[in-house]
Amino acid sequence: MSLINKKKYSEFESALNNLVNPSKLDSKDKKYLASIDKSLANFDSCLEWADYISFLTRLIKALNSHSKSHWIPHSVRISKCLSKCISSTLPSGVHRKALEVYECIFKLLGSSLLAQQMNLWIPGLLPLMSYASIGVKPSLIELLDRYVLELPPNYLKVITKKSP
Question: Would you identify the family this protein belongs to, as annotated (predicted)?
């Protein structure tokens, strides 16, 4: 990644993090934020594929712990973790669990927020198609079909547009 892209990415990350002011959150939102923080803290200690599955399971539980989730705290960090879980060096069980997390996030965001944040979530997901196992590909295709292909066409152009 070039220096310019890193700078733009850092600006994007800080803009997303500034959307939610922790001092203005109610107690349920603070608890939701804390559960996501706790879940993300476990990612750094993942050494084996079973650790990744455990992390992803905890993340799903944390994401579903909020009844009115309309935002994903630390979305850039979660996106980075998920893209690492989609690595070709990890087994298909980790890929399946990561797809479950993507589906959970896409449900929580809804189509309008997903369309706005597509450049955050989709790039980590697309490379999986090239090396996914036969058991994982149908789930990936279903996820893309259900959530991504249903987005407005003007947002989908971002995926297909080639950079100069």
Answer: Belongs to the DOP1 family.
